[in-house]
Amino acid sequence: MTIVDVRTPDPKKFIKGATGDWEIVIGMEVHAQVTSEAKLFSGASTEFGKDPNDNVSLVDAAMPGMLPVINEECVRQAIRTGLGLKAQINLKSVFDRKNYFYPDLPQGYQISQFKQPIVGEGKILLDMPDEQVEIGVERLHLEQDAGKSLHDQHPTMSFVDLNRSGVALMEIVSKPDLRSSDEAKAYLTKLRTILRYLGTCDGNMDQGSMRADVNVSVRRPGGEFGTRCEIKNVNSIRFVGQAIEYEARRQVAILEDGGSIDQETRLFDAVKGETRSMRSKEEAHDYRYFPDPDLLPLEFTQEFVDELAQHLPELPDDKKNRFMSDYGLTAYDAEILIAEKVSADFFEEVAKGRDAKLAANWVINELFGRLNKEGKDLSNSPVSAAQLGGIVDLIKDGVISGKIAKDLFEIVWTEGGDPAQIVEERGMKQVTDLGAIEAIVDEIIAANPDKVQQAIAKPGLLGWFVGQVMKQSQGKANPQAVSDMLKQKIGLE
Ligand code: ADP
Ligand code: MG
């Protein structure tokens, strides 16, 4: 493939070497396990966490004479994913055999797609802090996963578990358009969000249902692409960032020393935080790819694709735009809320019929902040959308002040209950009774004649008076009413 460089070199991302600047170039190959009850070419279950070899059909164990039969659901999921990546959907694609030996690959080959994948070029939009970046997707193809080898402690014995053998994977290959570890992490995060919205992969990297191979090279800014190393199977987004930082610096050191980079496959050692050589990189022709004679080309109609397109859920970018235009949220707040579909749904439940900005503020700053602090998430949140909505209503209606609302949130968080009822029972209502406020205002003014004089010269001091009155009222006075009354009494109007 000829690579077109679509990026303008950005000095902020350069690595400073002893002999000048270097630019990092990154391309990702992500293996995403397809959400489907059965495997790609057999009816065996894909359920995670079963005993070894519970989910194995004769096809997955590669018994002679068994024939693969394509699982239509996996095809649908791959097409839906392609649509979510705004990609070209190929109405005809071909399954090939990729031949290699591995103890957990009883067939002696993996059924994959090589020259004619089911999905062609697409794109993923990244919202970086100070720019929007479009990353090209080269292709998405369907393939089988391999089994797992298990080595016992000593090691005196090895075992093969074929539960994963034959499970459908989507390999999603990016163009080498990424230029920093931050962009690479944002790419994986965004891809995972899209897959989760679509329900085509659960995106759980710690369970191995999403795995990233990271290709890294360095070059002089804007120059020829360098030789890349591929870091295999990095299993968390944070590790992807660390692996890139380490690998790019390793390559820069070699090049500045007058050496050259060997194209090789490396692995990331998370404990040491470094990459290590695994093997020299194999070329495509080493695999002796050829069309699988047991399978016909995969063909479907444009109507089949259109039908799937019509039932696609709202995607993260669209949701973000809608949150900004319909609710008036900032890009920053919208981005936080749409990161997970459950948080977007939760927000919409709180915001329904209410002041959306106030709702977003309480969801993000109070609730998410607290959940984060206590290592919880929405699935085990002590405060429900209805309860948070109740708090927002009480603030909006002027029943409680923002300060009291924080106390109320604390009570709802620890004890539960209906916010309105708690406010009623515990006398937390904001004092809007002007007579009661006036008594306190007069008292504070009388006690601080010199400050009153200063405030007349410097109206900024009004805040101090408001603070005193609020303190005296134990936070229950309506701050607006207090401020209005103080202005009038001190003569600032
Ligand atoms: P394979 O790894 O199977 O040989 P490709 O050659 O298509 O496959 O490339 C795999 C990945 O490597 C892609 O994500 C691509 O963007 C990336 N890539 C290609 N050239 C470079 C490069 N010079 N530096 C960094 N990544 C690269
Ligand atoms: Mg590769």
Automatic annotation (TrEMBL):
InterPro entries the record matches: Asn/Gln-tRNA_amidoTrfase_suB/E, Asn/Gln-tRNA_Trfase_suB/E_cat, Asn/Gln_amidotransferase, Asn/Gln_tRNA_amidoTrase-B-like, GatB, GatB_C_1, GatB_Yqey_C_2, Gln-tRNA_amidoTrfase_suB_CS
Full protein name: Aspartyl/glutamyl-tRNA(Asn/Gln) amidotransferase subunit B
Keyword Heme listed: no
Molecular function GO terms recorded: asparaginyl-tRNA synthase (glutamine-hydrolyzing) activity; ATP binding; glutaminyl-tRNA synthase (glutamine-hydrolyzing) activity; transferase activity
Lineage: Bacteria, Pseudomonadati, Pseudomonadota, Alphaproteobacteria, Hyphomicrobiales
Catalytic reaction(s) noted: L-aspartyl-tRNA(Asn) + L-glutamine + ATP + H2O = L-asparaginyl-tRNA(Asn) + L-glutamate + ADP + phosphate + 2 H(+); L-glutamyl-tRNA(Gln) + L-glutamine + ATP + H2O = L-glutaminyl-tRNA(Gln) + L-glutamate + ADP + phosphate + H(+)
Functional description taken from the UniProt entry: Allows the formation of correctly charged Asn-tRNA(Asn) or Gln-tRNA(Gln) through the transamidation of misacylated Asp-tRNA(Asn) or Glu-tRNA(Gln) in organisms which lack either or both of asparaginyl-tRNA or glutaminyl-tRNA synthetases. The reaction takes place in the presence of glutamine and ATP through an activated phospho-Asp-tRNA(Asn) or phospho-Glu-tRNA(Gln).
GO biological process, one term: glutaminyl-tRNAGln biosynthesis via transamidation
